[in-house]
Amino acid sequence: MPAEKENGKPADPFEAFRGMRDAYLDSMSKVMIDAVNSEEYAEASGAMLNGALTLSAPFREAFGKSMVMALQQLSLPSRQEFASLAQRFANMEMRLDDMDAKLDRVVELLSANRPPVTRTAPEAKRPAPGEAKTTNEASTRKG
User: What residue spans define the domains of the chain?
Assistant: First the structure.
């Protein structure tokens, strides 16, 4: 019969190990937090990152050149070509916006200088397709 605790549940032989594990993880996390937040760690990490970037620069350049050549062989645009097109389209859009604003201003000025149109006589009704034309219309179109 397994050993039981006072509350009636069976005893867990790994409970002591779990407690030791939790205490170990807590103490290690405090040590690591203190280490990572130190100035020495920041300097060492920066030096390692700088060295890695310096070593990888020639490989990145070679990879970039080979990628551009591959894209040219496949008749696909490169990143620089996309950026150039985007800049050109943005420039065209700005110019169109400027032209639209100027055109709105011209229309505004023209409508302000034009006297309002008043109609004293009703306009002549245009004949519908198939209707007979009047003699005045027929004579002006022949001549």
Answer: 14-76, 77-113
